[in-house]
Amino acid sequence: MRNRPAMFVRHRILFRLFLCFSALLCCPTFAHAQQNDSKEELLVLSGEVGRPGGRLVVSLRGEPKTLNPLIAADARSREVIGVMQADLVHINRATQLTEPALAKSWKISPDGLTYTLVLRKGLKFSDGQPMDADDVLFSFRVYLDENTHAPQRDLLIVGGKPIVVRKLDAQTVVFQMAKPYGAAERLFDGMAILPRHLLENPFQEGKLAQIGSLSAAANQWAGLGPFRLKEYVAGQRLVLERNPYYWKSDSKGNRLPYLDELVFLFVPNADAQVLKFQSGETDMISQLGAENFSVLSRQQNGYTVTDAGPGLEYNFLFFNLNDVGEKASADLQRKQKWFREVKFRQAVSVAADREAIVRLVYQGRGAAIWGLVTPGNKRWGDANLAHPPRSLDHARVLLKEAGFSWTTGPNGESTLEDSDGKAVEFSILTSSTNADRAKMAALLQDDLKQLGMRVQVVPLEFRSLLDRVTQTKEYDACVMGIASYDADPNSDINVWLSSGGTHLWNPSQSHPATPWEAEIDRRVEEQMSAPAFEQRKKLYDRAQEILAEYQPMIFLASPDILAGAKNSVGNFHPAALEPYVLWNVEQLFLKTGRENAAR
Amino acid sequence: MIRRRKVAFWLLVLGALHGIVLCAGFFAPYDPVEQDRKNPYLPPMRLHFMDARGHLHVRPFVYGLQLRPGTYDQYVEDTTQLHPLKFFVAGDRYRLLGFFPVRLHLFGTGNERIYLAGTDAFGRDQLSRLLFGGQISLLAGLLGAGFTLLIGWCIGAVAGYYGGWRDDVLMRVAELFLALPWLYLLFAIRAFLPLTVNPLQAFFLIVAVIAAVGWARPARLVRGIVLSAKERDFVRAARGFGASNFYLLRRHILPETSSVLLTQAAILIPQYVLAEMTLSFLGLGVPEPVPSWGNLLSNLQQYSVLVSYWWIYLPAFAMVPFFLGYLGLASALQERPNAYKIERKSLGSLA
């Protein structure tokens, strides 16, 4: 039964391909004439044909800070910007592969250094002004300008040198890299093309950062995304309206997006999002926790909640392996002696009850993981990675080999001691606002108690936690989670490389502290410049295996992507990648035709 | 003597309630931090007398609960096997009153685990956590009230008896403390403390903080009584006979404050139990996995828990009898004739 729709879709796509192909073969001149005529090359999307009109309401956890992609660092701003801006090449959130977007095609030179992108014809910004290669040049000049401090800048520096962008003609742009870079076309995803006609002057004056605030006039900025700014009510909502110049259409030739309006309601937290969705005030919800998911699925009236399968978020425990030097307390230095012991970390990993985490924290809606690549990642998982089952006996053997021993206290409880006779006790930091990770830490605490380790869980406000981990480095261990924004390994590059800022156990090293970190660096850098997928995969697999052997990060579990939508929302297909439900916002539509503008 | 009987009655009630909490190890069937990972959010088991086939049993029994397949928090009773409740069974080792190692528990079923008040997210027995949590919360209340009254008593006596600039300074400081937004102060204090606070330290921190912010009110009460008592004739007479300040305070003035202090204690203790709960609820109390009533209730901060698992509310009801007991005691104490000791004594000295 489940296969039938899939087959049907596949047949339809084949059929459409066949049509296109025959059209090209038979009358190329006609196709050309039509293009010249309308001067517009719309991207045609498959999928269910919807009906236009209506307003869709979703909630955001708090207000976005800005609509300016050059300074947006928070997830909420990025979510809103994602529906207002467009990129040259886009990663399809469902297939995790790259697709043409503003660029209708691209060519890679044989040496892998030059990318030639051909833009669509007839593109227009949301204010009706035309967009061409000059806007692309301008955008990348802004991104690469050091004074802009754009977060995108780091990505555009390949092999130590910034990417050079040249214009061939009004429709063609060439990107030149100093070093080959595997899957460089993925870099373009999320690089919004900026309106030169509006931003040239502010850029020259160095005032770009002041532009694009939420309260600014709607005509201050224009984008190429499906929606544009209509109204902003501080503390309450952001209303976006349909961009009439959007460059996609459905298979019947209707210009997308279908919706007239997209409304973001600002709510304080995840529970408030659930309440709004439950009461029907919002039409869709994403990033649901497993417990809230089961609350919603118990009383589905008018809406459906879906488990879209494993995502890309990985949760892990890591120990402080920084070279803290003399300034650290003697206490931490003593503890670091244990943490640096590979067998100690392996013992902790083998003692962690991942299956219980999946069951108790995610109510079964998640997967146990032993590496950074989650089951939600379709192409990059290492099939050879060992998944050792939980075994306290094995953990005890490892600890014994590393010189630890046990003493029995007066109450019959056993205490793990190191070779100097000091009891093993340390604390685990967790974010106080993340109930899931606090639970994981509590489970680990109990697991490790059975090995005789005394562990304390310290919930900390997230920013001060981050400060401790990356700046002051005053902590023992920490449970954290990272959600990759892309399935490609390069999105996690700062976790892998010892020089990376999110190489959490010892971030931003000037050179690798251990031989195995050097080895990982080498593999990961090599895979970056390897041209073929198979080559990259092989190198990346090896890096995963080294990580699993030395356990600087003890991977625990990955939650499923849980989302929900009213039954009236069409084309609702949650994906494993961010933005989980709004990735195909241009295709979302309301089935009933009810005008809910009166809300 | 009805009043005295009332006081005795409330004291008895409170004694019994505190006794249960004090001997939590005996009344609780399990270790409060022991996780039963197969049974998260298990609802309270029902005590049956009638089995599924309609047979009546003298000894109450429970049916084991099993997860409904495909769910993670829905349970169904397994009526194929019944587990009779047994009294005075051997179970987990614990220390009675903190000293004597014992294994005797009031009840249990032998093989199947019994959860009369359900379990929490980690499958920990809610009843055991409730009883052990009471130890922390009530002790924090008692100690906090004790310290508060001690500080308030000393400061009030000094301010009232010596008067003058001492009175001015102490009472202005007291007013300052009354005006402090103490909850925010607590957050600030916690931020300055070291990262890892073990449960014992955290406990004494709570007690110290509660006492430090609460002394002003009893101090003002005591000061008022001392102020009026020191002008009484019998005090003047004693001073005339050459009694020292210390003797006057000890023998004549401070005893006058005893009834006020007792009443204050009966009011403050439940207030401070509540304060501990608030602090733990906000994450400033004893850390997990040690239970306290505030800790237990803080699970309710999650919406999903709030709407799905009613038995997590139980700690909120557990404190009701305690509060009734203390408030009953307070009103009984206020009715006592001794409350009018001053008038009687001064009348007596006139006669």
| Succession of helices and strands of chain B | HHEEEEEHHHHHHHHHHHH
Report the sheet-strand fraction of chain A.
Answer: 15-25%
Report the structural category of chain A: alpha+beta
First and last CA, distance of chain B: 26 Å
Count of separate DSSP helical elements of chain B: 14
For the largest sheet of chain B, list the strands in their spatial order. Answer: 1-2-3
Number of helices of chain A: 16
In terms of quaternary structure, what is this? heterodimer
Structural class by secondary-structure content of chain B? alpha+beta
Description:
The complex is a heterodimer of chains A (599) and B (351). Helix content of chain A is 31%, strand content 22%. In chain A, helix 4 (133-144) runs parallel beside helix 5 (196-205), helix 9 packs antiparallel against helix 11 (392-401) and helix 15 packs antiparallel against helix 16. In chain A, 45% of the residues are buried. Chain A has 599 residues and is α+β, with helices and mostly antiparallel strands. In chain A, strand 19 and strand 20 form a beta hairpin. In chain A, the strands form eight sheets. In chain A, strands 15, 16, 17, 18, 21, 22, 23 and 24 form an eight-stranded mixed β-sheet that branches. In chain A, strands 2-14-12-11 form a four-stranded mixed β-sheet, with helices on both faces. A four-stranded antiparallel β-sheet of chain A has the order 5-6-10-9, covered by helices on one side. Chain B is of the alpha+beta class and 351 residues long. Chain B has 14 helices and five strands. Chain B has helices at 2-22, 24-27, 126-162, 164-179, 182-192, 199-214, 216-229, 233-240, 245-253, 258-281, 293-298, 303-308, 314-335, 341-350; strands spanning 48-50, 56-67, 75-84, 86-96, 100-108. Chain B has a three-stranded antiparallel β-sheet with strand order 1-2-3, with no helix packed on it. In chain B, strands 4-5 form a two-stranded antiparallel sheet. In chain B, a hairpin with a 3-residue loop joins strand 4 (86-96) and strand 5. In chain B, helix 4 packs antiparallel against helix 7 (216-229) and helix 8 (233-240) runs antiparallel to helix 9. The longest helix of chain B is centred in the middle third of the chain and has 37 residues, at 126-162. Classes of the chains: A alpha+beta (599), B alpha+beta (351). At the A-B interface, helix 6, helix 7, helix 10, helix 12 and strand 22 of A face helix 12 of B.
